[in-house]
What does this fold into?
Amino acid sequence: MTGFAEAGGDAGPLPALYGHPRGDRALMRAYFRKAGFKGGRYRGKARLLVVGADVPPGSRTASEAARQLRGMGFHVRLKRVPQDAVYTDYCQRPRRRVAMWREHRLVQGLQRSAVPAAAALRRSPHLPQRQQQPRPVERSCDQPCDESRRVLSTGQPRTDAWAAIDKQIMADAPAVPYVWDVATYVESADVIGVLNPYTTVWDYSFSALR
It folds into this structure.
């Protein structure tokens, strides 16, 4: 994808922070101490509402997120609801004060660096505020996204601009990105099966019999 190398490549935009994909408790404690918590864990009365689906895999992901947050010292209330209610009844209702939810999906149709950043994190001017997904970095992301789209239409300057936005977003750490686990698909010997890279299921427009 264009902009991947400019944003840090495989090492990521902030290797010191994101260079530990399996987690690093020492690094976690170091950041808490920088935030004023001398014990390296959160010490406060705030309660976080974590919302997840009531069936796997969403329920398991939400449970794991709640477990790790509790390990950091946070007081967590975990609520499991039907998948559609995660959005309509909680994440799209600011008054619910949802601290974290699983998940905000993004399936991009164009291999361009602007697509995931703008679609996932920029507020849409076409939807009522009550239908917006909460955007933790909206103030710092909206303006750079708009300027890059308007002024930099093509070429390397646009790629560099979106790489800078990516670094800015990752520094704010508004979300925990992850991809689907590797899935196994089986086809018979007389079938030429083609998987759709976006829907991750069989694509009958291109699959055929031998």
In short: The longest helix spans residues 155-172. The mean pLDDT is 77.
